[in-house]
Design brief:
By secondary structure, this protein is α/β, with parallel strands linked by helices. The protein folds into 2 domains: 271 residues, TIM Barrel (Alpha-Beta Barrel); 103 residues, Immunoglobulin-like (Sandwich). Helices cover 32% and strands 29% of the residues. The protein has 12 helices and 19 strands. The strands form 4 sheets. An 8-stranded parallel beta sheet has the order 1-2-3-4-5-6-7-10, with helices on both faces. Helix 6 runs parallel beside helix 7 and helix 9 runs parallel beside helix 10. The chain binds zinc ion.
Length: 388
């Protein structure tokens, strides 16, 4: 196994040349897994070296378990686009959608870490309407992130029927024929398609004529991907990047660049640029009635009797940013009194707010209260806070 690793790192046995590496154009790989059985063979820093050697500017990574993705993300936050795979180990692809603990795990991780999407998950036909997948679709909507679905056309249709504004990245383009992929892209404007683990769209640096038609008709929907579903597949990341550059060069420049990296970057930016309700420290995130809220204190360690501010992000189900009102207050439930000052809240951007003039005048158990004024009514959420 160690020998395999060094072969990957030094490029031994691989077919790229130094010249083509130095001339490499940017590339985003939308389909990388770093699952538990790869961790020993290829430690995180070494895996990052492979991705960089392939000339990737972005890599969408999802892993069984998610800890693999977190390891890579910590090692290279500029490169890794974290995607939350709902699997703890290999072998859950056929059971997860009937396993309620999966929904709980996904909800917990979404509240703790930052993700651009949920997937890659395997889901076919009517199973898409089972309770666990439904919960996954609604969590993606709540957090404004995409779904990476290894699915047939029917399951993709069912996901969009559940949530019309969902964004779906169709893994392997559903292994469907080019004309069927085109039909799906025409039907769903928020559907993207990765070409992972497929090769029939190009040979010898030439794009297949049927696929060329589809690429030109939908230049902003396709992305490339390697799919490192087994540890040995990490061998192919660099090779695959080289092969991709060759056939992309056969397409008009702008279309080639879109498929090479721009479409992936656009989707990642949409997901990660949305109101961020997931990066708060533990205990600073709360969700209710389809709304998620997270806050950060400024300064981080607030002092008794000293004014402080709060930066707050609010997400809501669907992709519209929360544009209602927000009130912030704090009280001591045991003492039944609030603060001595009334804080001012102002909008600070898409779904984000800043509250100033807060002050806790006593040590003890406080509760921050948030009151959202939404179109559908008032939603109240609270988070306990101990002032030391
Ligand atoms: Zn995969």
């Amino acid at each position: 196994m160690k020998r395999l690793l060094s072969a990957i790192i030094v490029g031994g046995g691989l077919s790229f040349s130094a010249a083509s590496v130095s001339a490499q154009s940017p590339l985003a790989d939308a389909h990388i897994h770093y699952s538990h059985d790869a961790w020993d063979m290829l430690p995180a820093e070494e895996a990052i070296k492979v991705l960089r050697r392939a000339g990737l500017t972005k890599a969408f990574v999802s892993s069984s378990s998610d800890e693999g993705t977190q390891m890579l993300y910590r090692a290279a936050p500029d490169l890794i686009v974290p995607v939350l795979r709902p699997y703890r180990r290999r072998g859950e692809t056929g059971t997860w959608f009937r396993d309620a603990t999966v929904g709980d795990m996904v909800a917990k991780l979404l509240a703790r870490n930052k993700y651009a999407g949920i997937g890659e998950f395997h889901l076919f036909g009517k199973d898409a309407d089972l309770p666990v997948p439904r919960r996954i679709v609604s969590l993606a909507a709540q957090y404004g992130i995409f779904l990476h679905a290894h699915s047939d056309a029917e399951a993709v249709d069912r996901i969009f029927a559940q949530h019309a504004a969902a964004r779906v990245l169709w893994a392997h383009s559903g292994f469907a024929a080019p004309e069927d992929v085109a039909a799906m892209l025409a039907k769903h404007k928020n559907l993207w398609s990765d070409l992972a683990f497929r090769s029939e769209h190009a040979a010898g640096g030439k794009v297949d004529p049927q696929w060329r038609k589809v690429f030109l008709a939908f230049p902003d929907r396709f992305m490339i991907g390697t799919d490192t579903y087994a540890p040995e597949r990490w061998y192919y990341v660099i090779d695959h990047a080289e092969w991709s550059r060759q056939w992309l060069a056969d397409l008009p420049g702008e279309v080639a660049e879109n498929i090479a990296y721009r479409n992936a970057e656009t989707l990642a930016r949409w997901a990660l640029g949305s109101p961020d309700c997931t990066t708060g420290a533990p205990g600073t995130t709360v969700a209710k009635d389809g709304y998620g809220l997270s806050y950060q204190l400024e300064p981080a360690a607030i002092q008794v009797g000293q004014p402080f501010a709060m930066n707050i992000s609010v997400c809501q189900a669907g992709e519209t940013p929360f544009d209602g009102g927000l009130r912030v207050d704090a009280m001591m439930p045991a003492h039944k009194h609030g603060m001595n000052y009334k804080p001012k809240v102002r909008k600070a951007g898409r779904g984000s707010f800043r509250a100033e003039g807060l002050m806790l005048h006593m040590r003890g158990e406080w509760r921050f209260n948030f009151e959202l004024t939404a179109a559908t009514g008032v939603v109240r959420m609270g988070v306990d806070y101990t002032q030391q």
